[in-house]
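Retro notes - structure team

What went well: the batch runner handled both jobs without manual restarts.
What didn't: labels got mixed up in the shared folder, which is why I'm recording both outputs here explicitly, each with its sequence directly above its tokens.

Job 1
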Amino acid sequence: MQRHLATLEDVAREAGVSQQTVSRVLNNPAVVAERTREKVIRAMQALHYVPNRSAQLLAGKSAPSIGLITASLTLHAPSQIAAAVKSYAGSHQLEVSIAMPVQADFSSLQDRLNEFRAQHIRGAIISLPLESSVAERLAAENSDIACLFLDVSPESDVCCVRFDHRDGCGACVQHLWDAGHREFGLLAGPESSVSARMRLSSWREALHRLGIANAVTVFGDWSAASGWQKTFELLHQHPRISAMVVANDQMALGVLSALAQLNRTGGRAVSVTGYDDTADSLYFQPPLTTVAQDFNVLGKRAVERLIQLMAAPQIKIRELLPTRLIIRQSTRPYSGETDDEKDKVITQLKTLAEKL
């Protein structure tokens, strides 16, 4: 159902004032008596009135725009996707209005869509990991805005362009299995993250197919610091781990740092895989085996598909983009350990745990 937008006339009627008074409250509130101003503001809030900014700012002269709702651009993946979206939107003579809500709940996202609506934006790319229920509700309650999602589960009944997490995660596990590893540690992203849960589920599916049911799981927060800390936690729980599968490259950087501190090199080295293939991962020590996602392709396809969706809202778009495993020196064949070496590792871990 299309949302009814309250008009200036609706607000004036609700507040019991003229449309000119409402306009003054919006554009020059200092000239309106405080009591009248408060009546108008209450009416706007009651009607969920959204000011028409495109009419306020050079009406009709602004370039056509699309919206992008994204996580913080200080993070690698969101920043790369945003750069690609802006680049390819520009090639289609489209401006991009970017919103970065603090929370990814329905109310916050609805507010951002209302902001886009006020700017006469009729298409939005939503580059946030969202629960199916939130994504489906946003699409259903904003039928006048074409919504294209980039990070939702395969079960979500919404238009989406997304990467094939299952393929990339399965490739990591298979690569380590083929190298002889049988004792796995899984370092997932936050349990609240949809994409983190999808990667964890895909790892576990791949391990289950190979007959491994004893992999130990811990959860980080995407940062290198949590990767460092969680490495000690994982090895304390299960000292015989020979391979760690990590949900992103930043946490993998922390993992490699912790392993270096533990002197887990040579025959005692733990193999590590990351996810994202960030530009720096080639220069980690050792260079990181990781899953590459082409964010440039994702941005390009998202813009192209959104343009199609805006022109034909009735179409259903569900596009899956490939990932690929980049094998570097952070993974190696399993060489085994002597009992003396295992006892030495356990003693070292206990000593470090007491210091942390």
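Job 2
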Amino acid sequence: MKQRIITGVIAAAFFIGITVYGKLPFALVIIALALIGVYELLRMKGISALSAPGLIGFLLTIGFVIPSNWKHVVFLHLSTSEFLMIGLLLLLFVTVASKNSFTFDGVGFVLLSSLYVGYGFYYVYETRMMDHGLSILFFILFMIWGADSGAYFFGKAFGKRKLWPVISPNKTIEGALGGIFVSLVVGFVCYFVHFIHFSWLTVLVMALMAGIFGQIGDLVQSAFKRHYGVKDSGNILPGHGGILDRMDSWLFVLPLLHVLHLLS
């Protein structure tokens, strides 16, 4: 527990500081986090980071996560769909060059991992770069963290009925409802103290989405780990696991809020 607290304090201080500063350092940190996240998924699957599929996966992730205004410089005016197609063709070529030791299943895994992690972290960056993006990003993160804490403490205190035992044996329905409740409380506290300037209806919808889809993101990560037989996605954060263990909820909530235009 001591190690977990120390790691949490150091990681939080670093992330808050770099997020408040923003600009190029924040963009580079987000790209680094995305690359670590994809590395963790590749490692679960048993794909070497230095193999052809691994390197293509990293390249794809960079293409999805880098800021929009960098893409034309880094990728020579290729559109996202053209870039994705090139990555797909390269991966399919590897299946032939490897004499099918790298299969079509692996192609799908690398593509989906790059999309899932790359775009997830891309929307973290895009949120920070919006007008009032600093307060908006922390508003969303406060609700996600509130939902996570609420699910844990309500589950410990009142949990009886298992939520999804095949995926995550310790999660309960009572804990999940408690997480949604705390997300709503955090959202409306931010609303009433004027931390953000959304309407009460938008705050309600965003808090529900943070509470519900944040927990779904956590379940998705649990499903990955259970399928591949690992306890944590990585060990970069002693006492906490990997990057995806700590940020899995972000990768669901932030893209959804942008796609549904709730932040505009």
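One thing worth noting from job 2: The first helix runs from residue 2 to 21.
We'll revisit the folder naming next retro.
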